[in-house]
Amino acid sequence: MAQAARERGYEYIAITDHSKSLAMTNGLDERRVSAFAARCAASTRTGDSASASFSGIECDIMKDGAMDLAWDALAELDFVIGSVHNNMNMEAAEMSDRLLRALECPSLRVFGHLTGRLLLNRDPYPFDFDRIVDAAVKRGVMFEINSSPERLDLSATMARAAKKKGAKFVIDTDAHHPKHLANMRYGVATARRAWLAPSDVLNTLPLADFAARL
């Protein structure tokens, strides 16, 4: 992944594997998170990685809003995304409370694919969008614009509405293989339709500024 990122001209990449509750993806538990964070740091420090590699995780937000991993393990990572992958048939008020509780985690940096939709396959789950955006902006938590053609989540309409409330964003590929890095153009197109500027998107920053913002 890091070599493919370098070939695309990227200075850095964040590696964000799934957490343990997604057993089918071999998600990381607390012990493996610690080892992974050390490996990324060592790789970047020694120059073994083709691009600077930030340690991260896409941590499941559980049904009750708790994070799938202990807070002290998450604190060892550079970049924590929180996402919902299960129990999506909750009422809007319950789902909103679930997302709000996730915001209590001090290491959370980004809400991943906020609506949970899969295009042509699964509708978004209901929640109070304005309430979640307001709370995230207050906490400094950003929103993912997911470039996967299966998701494109947030939509341009929702991203524009979130920007008006002061939200910031990351655009990422949700890549599960190096070839998926090419999907970045779809997320950038979504951001342009949302009238976002480079200053609205964290990963437009050069390496030193990105690291400082983290």
Question: Gyration radius, to the nearest Å?
Answer: 16 Å
In whole angstroms, the N-to-C terminal distance is: 21 Å
Q: Count the strands?
A: 6
User: H/E element string?
Assistant: HEHEHEHEHEHEHH
* Approximate strand percentage: 15-25%
Mean pLDDT: 93
Largest sheet: 6 strands, parallel
Overall shape: it is globular
The number of helical runs is 8
Question: Roughly how much helix do the residues carry, as a percent range?
Answer: 25-40%
Strand order of the largest sheet: 1-2-3-4-5-6
How would you classify the helix and strand content by structural class?
alpha/beta
In terms of per-residue confidence, which ranges show pLDDT below 50 for 5 or more consecutive residues?
Answer: none
Secondary structure blueprint with pairings:
Blueprint: H1 2-7, E1 12-18, H2 30-46, E2 52-60, H3 71-74, E3 79-83, H4 92-102, E4 108-111, H5 129-139, E5 142-146, H6 156-164, E6 169-172, H7 184-193, H8 207-213
Parallel strand pairs: 1-2, 2-3, 3-4, 4-5, 5-6
Helix pairs in contact: 6-7
